[in-house]
Amino acid sequence: MSKNLVVVESPAKAKTIEKFLGKNYTVKASMGHLRDLPKSQFGIDIENNFSPKYINIRGKGDVIKSLKDAAKTADKVFLASDPDREGEAIAWHLAHILNLSPDKACRIVFNEITKPAIQNAVKSPRPINSDRVDAQQARRLLDRIVGYQLSPLLWRKVRKGLSAGRVQSVAVKMICDREKEIQTFIPEEYWTIAAKLRQKPKTPLFDAQLVSVDGKKSYVNNEEQSNLIKSELEQSEFRVSDVKKRERRRNPSPPFITSSLQQDASRKLGFTSRKTMMVAQQLYEGLEIGSSGPVGLITYMRTDSTRISEVAQQEARSYIAERFGQNYLPEKPPVYSTKKSQDAHEAIRPTSVDLNPQGLANSLSRDQLRLYTLIWDRFIASQMAPAVYDTITVEIGAGRYGLRSNGSKLKFKGFMAIYIEGKDEQENDKDVTLPELEVGEVLKLQKILPVQHFTEPPPRYTEASLVKTLEENGIGRPSTYAPIIETILERGYVNRVDKKFQPTELGIVVVDLLKEYFNTIVDVEFTAAMEDRLDEIADGKASGVELLNEFYQPFSKTLANAEEQIGQVELPVEISDVPCENCGKFMVVKQGRYGKFLACPGFPECRNTKAILKDTGVKCPKCEGNIVERRTKRGKNFYGCKNYPECDFVTWDIPQKEACQSCGNLLLRHNYKNGRFILYCNNEGCPTRENSPINKELKKKEKKADSSKPGKTAKTKKGKKKNN
Q: Is CB count within 10 Å lower at the N or C end of the chain?
């Protein structure tokens, strides 16, 4: 008997869906795109309304044959690629390959891989959405035009192997612009002045900050001003002039969309955008959960919508009421606004609240469990009541000076009982308690504390802050953030140093060239407007051919002008003091995808290369050689002996020039994400390592971290499974 054929994108998804549909359905995977523009040629007929030349992707022949054979014997064929524009385009290409009419009901979509969602999808197929296909194709052709016509110009004028992308170039420009801000930044001095006060002798001290002088906002710019104010305050009477008490509510963050998931996974878990999307894909497509077989754990992870289905909201509300109590429920389910007009998807959420992270600990890998916990917690928190603080603001007069003291106390946790959003600069949510003060009350001064500060330049972009900025400026879409970052790193335009992006000399040269001759390509507003036009095409309000025409006419003229005007661009060469062992020439600094390295200038005759080693000035505890700083392929710093491989000493922690005071051995510095650090002796037998309070804290933290890790199934020597 013939079966119905369902074509999805991945084998994992196929396995999960086949379980839900039963024996009358065959589910096969296309393994992503089967047709695309050719790599070896431009593939676009400009003169014929930008007609694309699509070919079957090399290496996909067996998959195509298998799908064709299955489609010939099937009663019905359902195309079930992902529910976004890319997925719509994959379905359109599949329809062409399998000789299906795109206008017939052959397309099914679902936001989650659960039994009800899949069964409902096959009951309501629809035609392929030609507008969404047109939008995806317009984006693909725009990127091909820029990539295949601008990149060769860079090869000829700068260096072979370079590329210029329509969206990636904007990201590189943003990083370069930030670096220039940092380099040209001039620090300005300023001072803050705090008073240590108490209500009565022997009562607890509290702080009050100087906020005004003669009724105007205070600006203290130098030590002379600071000393004058300090002297006058020390002679002043401190009297309470106003006390304001109020209740402050802190609302939960909305459930995750793609960009916010990537940002919080970066801040809280240290995941790159690529890793976040890879793990999220696994959670979406389905994982083996005990005897239940493969289960899809989250909804579709490429979305810019914060919408939640009524069923999911009610499920969450029932869980919250049962787990936390009715007072943790808002009166009405919260509704979060969505920036984009497209609202076809839901936010990223668990497919079932009953699949809580604790119950899945033994079924998921460590990374899968950590990301799933983040998604689950954020969703539940988004449906909870706000946190409530009691706050108090005390205004204090001291002669012509005004001071202010703020206190707050968490009265009701609300959503904070389960989740707090991560920030690049961690917020301080600790209670600050002030005494009960009354207007007119005179306070006792303990001490005046002036502190010198200097303004700081804007920080370099982290992966989280870059994704946030791209989203805020309308650059790219949910599916493009991770590829943008991977591309600019791979091309050597930027480096990731201490989890922050720094432009390379190559990146700066290319961006400066594009800014001079192709300003629209790297213009943030132009690129954002282009994204809005693509949205209009997807909504059927504009034409892809019209957009391509509007872009190509001025672009082709600019390209011809640049070809004539740009001479050969010489990249600056940094010559080191390290001679090449093979030919004796001084090696030069080169930029690779994993950072800088030394290469012989005699290339290609001499191909000698070596890593750039930064000497720490600390001796190796094993062989007395120098310890040098090295980098992994992922850009993470570690420290090892210069005599490697003869000496295998290696550590992630920073060697200190000061030796251990107890045994004279190597001292290491372990840094925490919150900025704190711990020093400990490398000698395991050293008494300070065992007995020092600061190192007891390190052990306590390590023990806590180990105990919080999900249990994993491991095999003993006898082959039996045990729980670690």
A: N
| pLDDT number for residue 425 | 41
Specify the pLDDT at position 424.
42
- What residues contact 555, with CB distance under 8 A and at least 6 apart? 145, 146, 149, 518, 520
CA gap 220, 231 in Å, rounded: 14
Q: Write down how long the chain is.
A: 724
Which has the closest alpha carbon to 85: 128, 27, 49, 143?
Answer: 128
* Predicted pLDDT at 673: 64
77-79, strands of its sheet edge to edge: 25-29, 4-8, 77-79
Within 10 angstroms of residue 89's Cβ, the number of other Cβ atoms is: 24
Q: Which residues of 374-412 are buried (b: 16+ CB within 10 A; e: fewer)?
A: bbbbbbbbbbbbbbbbebbebbbbbeebbbebebbeeeb
Q: Is 331 helix (H, G, I), strand (E, B) or coil?
A: coil
Helix, strand, coil percent content, the chain, rounded in steps of 5: 35, 25, 40
Q: Which of 143, 122, 196, 108 is nearest to 36 (CA)?
A: 143
Residue in 265, 258, 171 with CA at minimum distance from that of residue 478: 258
Residue type, 294: P
300 has catalytic annotation: yes
User: In which residue are the tokens 């009166």 written?
Assistant: 331
Q: What b-and-e string marks burial along 538-573, b requiring 16 or more CB atoms within 10 Å of the CB?
A: beeebbbbebbeebbeebeebbeebeeebeeeeeee
The pLDDT of residue 721: 40
Cis omega (within 30 of 0) for bond into 102: no
Q: pLDDT tens, 702-720? A: 555 555 444 444 333 334 4
DSSP 186: -
Indicate which residue of 25, 190, 219, 300 is catalytic.
300
Q: Which of 366, 376, 476, 417 is nearest to 712 (CA)?
A: 366
What does the longest C-alpha to C-alpha distance in the chain come to? 98
- Low-confidence spans in the chain with pLDDT less than 70: 1-2, 338-344, 422-430, 591-595, 633-635, 673-675, 688-724
Specify whether the backbone of 422 is left (phi greater than 0), alpha (psi in -120 to 50) or beta: beta
Give the CB-side neighbour count of residue 503, counting CA atoms within 13 A: 24
Q: Supply the DSSP string of 46-109, one letter for each residue.
A: TTTTTEE--EEPTT-HHHHHHHHHHHHH-S-EEE---SSHHHHHHHHHHHHHTT--TTSS-B--
> How confident is the model at residue 319, as a pLDDT?
95
Predicted pLDDT of residue 716? 36
pTM of this prediction? 0.80
CA 362 to chain centre: 27
The pLDDT value given to residue 124:
93
Tokens of 365: 């890998």
